[in-house]
């Protein structure tokens, strides 16, 4: 935790510059017919879940470089997310990974969560690696496996995840499958799909009726010839097969280069099946970079689609779970997450600034240039003062990253947890 006074002190120093910039953008927006205060309120309401696996430096298969002071337990991970939320007031929940973060002392965890103003939004199952005490191996798949015993073990694990989640008042199970094949002929492609569908249906039927199952897709890796759920169409078909509370989860990094992700978002909202988002940035694939670091325009276009869908009464899409899913090996993870949340909120804020009536008119009239210019105008608006004001109004820092650095938090975490502490699970 950071002392409240420290954030106030930081904000006092930042206030004159912040006020000037805020007044400028408010004036610009008012002249355009927007209500800047209403936009700030919408930014305040937007909350993003932090994954429990993102608080330590991620590794690659080549190596891992610890930053020091990494959380050694679920309790310390909650403390780190609590700190992020205290600084930006925009990260009020945690996505929990099972079995890396199995809750042990549930009442104490609940108390700790309340103390930090946090909740557990979702539980994520893991059948992509074998655990020490596991009877059957997932080397050749889990929910798709040819052997019933392996499938049953994977189904039981997912049901166990739901049980852990229920204890902490979560309502979402996220399933991502590493299942697939590396070589032609390895899988009977149709049969492997059918086994997966039936396994997912078994898990679904064991979920409480107020729970949501999110089905995530990924085109390649760890399997390279075929993935059992490679694309949104397969996720969508599986959701339809298992039931109405199954929704597609879009992970930004789980697409081949140049995929039009905003169109996928639009399609899924049109079908009322977009249930969750995993934010990250990527250059090639699942490289888990900071959200908005590589393709900020694409992130904006995705939010443009989301905002348009959320504003359209004809769209019957459920509430979307907003989550970050990133963990790489270069930055201080807390700084990375602060940057990611800011990047997400900035993209959202820009999407709120699209003149939808004018855009609709340009589209109806096939005025290609005008339609594009309307989007560019919103994208090129400096929305940082609006995001900062949303955070300030909720008691957060005007500049969370600067406040984090000024308080020398990493140094104190290293002092407390050690130079070579390793985040559990990684
Ligand atoms: Mn993901």
TrEMBL record:
GO molecular function, one term: metal ion binding
SUPFAM superfamilies linked: Xylose isomerase-like
A Pfam family that the UniProt record links to this protein: AP_endonuc_2
Organism of provenance: Haliscomenobacter hydrossis (strain ATCC 27775 / DSM 1100 / LMG 10767 / O)
Protein name: Xylose isomerase domain-containing protein TIM barrel
Xylose isomerase-like TIM barrel domain segment(s): 103-288
Keywords: Isomerase, Manganese, Metal-binding
Highest rank taxon of the organism: Bacteria
InterPro entries cross-referenced by the UniProt entry: L-rhamnose_isomerase, Xyl_isomerase-like_sf, Xyl_isomerase-like_TIM-brl
